[in-house]
Design brief:
binds iron/sulfur cluster; ten-stranded parallel beta sheet; 2 iron, 2 sulfur cluster binding; 2Fe-2S; two-stranded antiparallel sheet; 2 domains; alpha/beta
Length: 357
Amino acid sequence: MVFSPVAKPSCAALQFAPRETWNKVIVVTLQALQTAPATTGGDTVRHDWTVEEVEALFALPFNDLLFQAQTVHRAHFDPNRIQISSLLSIKTGACPEDCTYCAQSAHHNTDLEREKLLAVEEVIAAAAKAKADGASRFCMGAAWRGPHGDDFAVALTMIEGVKALGLETCASFGVLSREQARQLKEAGLDYYNHNIDTSPEHYKEIVTTRTFEDRLETLEHVHDAGLHVCSGGIVGLGESQTDRASMLVTLANLPHQPDSVPINLLIPIPGTPLAEAAVERPDPFDFIRVIAVARVMMPKSYVRLSAGREGMSAEMQALCFFAGANSVFCGYKLLTAKNASPGQDRGLFDRLGLKPM
Ligand code: SF4
């Protein structure tokens, strides 16, 4: 039997159809879904999402939401490929900001050992090792309010050196001026990470030393300098479902959706206000829903399953990938927190048939 989207077989005919015909039916059905209106997971990149619409996505039955997210995902990405980044803290602790989840803030009493800015050679060696472990992007994070003085000049040299290894480069140095963003671009930076953390409404409960608007301004400078934007948020900060929707609306409605969207699960670190407040852990299915909704709203962005992965079962990570996550951090450490080891990751990717991009 010849099957085409024009001459559709009847249900009765399909009942006895070979597997190949069924596969074609599934492909055509998925294609139809992909070209459906964007609110049902279509192909269009929208910048006019409302919180109510996003709450409706969250309220979908789990299977319906995951099907929709997977459909959108397949329209834009190879579902069996995963982008791997590696993240190194190039300057640790004593940060003047007061982010209530962060071990590196000078405002909190954590056991973290502070470290001055690493030497350029040390960073290049770590980047070479990350490349050998399969990373395609090397991210450098510094616990600064923003880059400054001689340290910024050294950081620019690091970026040049990492780029020369043939890796994509990413930096997370805090608030940036327009000129600093330009200098980073000139040094060979590809991505700049600056998370919005949470919704504009919940933000003041999480950080008081810089405003939500400061963050958006930095994202604008990053984009205007021609850098790829990496921006996402954290689940588990005591936020409501409406906050999660509002956070995703903020990201998706940016004039240019972030190229990379890290979704973090809070790691409660003793000594940080959020850990001390013993904020309730999110239901794992709610976390997966955030990944799925992010995928539907930002169809062309890499959605990164980021901090908190080390504590997730293989099955939960697999569901996150099915929900549209297609990027992870590899390496034993994620800034100052534990992360899944490269060996564990390779094992999991092999079991799932996932290949690095
Ligand atoms: S999250 Fe970044 S800006 Fe906030 S305290 Fe930690 S290192 Fe500083």
